């Protein structure tokens, strides 16, 4: 077992170091025929907010080579609807379920964890922070979870915010950190605007080109952090996962590659298990 929350009273043990990233795997209901769930360390859900969120206006996706620029707005039907629809499924999965939560402020976060009280199918919270999150807000959000629930807390750091947020959160008692959420980017749309210049789309970047940036973050920060680190960003092969683990990551999350190759989750998990002498998967 791999322990993602070694300092938490309940802990957050996972059987394999491989899991889908938030947004890559829905709520756990979409890949049953394509993925052997026994190979997953945990299910990390699609981002969930207290209130329903609408999808961003199109266009929402630009593909440039193997790089994706995506702007979705994190649409979801809100926490109440998601719990009603998926709590029974999560209880049957047989693996830890980590809720990826978006909260605008600490008061909203308190409402979220109040609604999660008694939800036995949920094993942890991954708090998603955007690139505008200050240290003060990040710490306040963490406190709002800590003081009002017993869930282990992982914080997924924004790519541009690792240097300012990682150490304060670790010192404040976060259980683990995910490095990182996708960085922001801008690409021109194919259609020209009225003056002939290409309109621009802003969004989050995904693809294997991000992997060297991830390794740089891991190489820089893992030696400085006293908490487990989950690697996320551009991982698209077992070799990539091995490189992250060799740098000290406790686990890896796969994001956009899952949409094209969902079977890669199980493939990587099995090959890593073989490396460790475990042929049970």
Protein topology:
Blueprint: E1 2-3, E2 13-14, E3 18-20, E4 43-44, E5 48-49, E6 61-64, E7 67-70, H1 79-93, E8 97-102, H2 106-116, E9 124-128, H3 135-146, E10 153-157, H4 162-171, E11 176-179, E12 184-188, E13 200-206, H5 211-221, E14 229-232, H6 238-246, E15 251-254, H7 257-260, H8 264-275
Parallel strand pairs: 3-15, 4-8, 5-8, 8-9, 9-10, 10-11, 11-14, 14-15
Antiparallel strand pairs: 1-2, 6-7, 7-13, 12-13
General description of the model:
Helix content is 30%, strand content 21%. With 281 residues, the chain is α/β, with parallel strands linked by helices. The strands form 3 sheets. Strands 3, 4, 5, 8, 9, 10, 11, 14 and 15 form a 9-stranded parallel β-sheet that branches. Strands 6-7-13-12 form a 4-stranded antiparallel β-sheet, with no helix packed on it. Helix 2 (106-116) packs parallel to helix 3 and helix 3 runs parallel beside helix 4 (162-171). The longest helix has 15 residues, at 79-93.
């Amino acid at each position: 077992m791999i322990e993602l929350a070694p300092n938490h009273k309940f802990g957050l043990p996972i059987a394999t170091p491989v899991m889908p990233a938030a947004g890559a795997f829905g709520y756990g209901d979409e890949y049953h025929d394509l993925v052997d769930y026994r190979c997953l360390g945990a299910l990390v859900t699609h981002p969930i907010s207290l209130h329903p969120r609408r999808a961003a206006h199109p266009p929402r996706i630009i593909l440039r080579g193997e790089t994706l620029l995506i702007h979705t707005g994190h649409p979801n039907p809100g926490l109440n609807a998601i719990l009603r629809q998926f709590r029974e499924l999560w209880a049957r999965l047989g693996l830890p379920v980590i809720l990826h939560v978006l909260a605008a402020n600490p008061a909203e976060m308190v409402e979220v964890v109040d609604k999660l009280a008694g939800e036995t199918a949920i094993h942890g919270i991954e708090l998603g922070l955007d690139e505008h999150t200050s240290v003060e807000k990040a710490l306040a959000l963490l406190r709002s979870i800590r003081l009002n629930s017993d869930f282990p807390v992982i914080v997924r750091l924004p790519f541009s915010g690792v240097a300012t947020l990682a150490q304060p959160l670790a010192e404040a008692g976060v259980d683990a950190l995910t490095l990182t959420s996708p960085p922001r980017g801008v690409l021109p749309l194919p259609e020209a605007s009225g003056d002939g210049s290409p309109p621009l789309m802003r969004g989050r970047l995904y693809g294997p080109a991000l992997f060297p940036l991830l390794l740089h973050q891991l190489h820089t920060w893992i030696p400085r952090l006293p908490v487990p680190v989950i690697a996320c960003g551009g991982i698209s092969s077992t070799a990539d996962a091995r490189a992250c683990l060799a740098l000290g990551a406790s686990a890896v999350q796969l994001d956009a590659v899952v949409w094209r190759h969902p079977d890669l989750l199980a493939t990587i998990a099995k090959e890593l298990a073989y490396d460790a002498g475990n042929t049970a998967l």
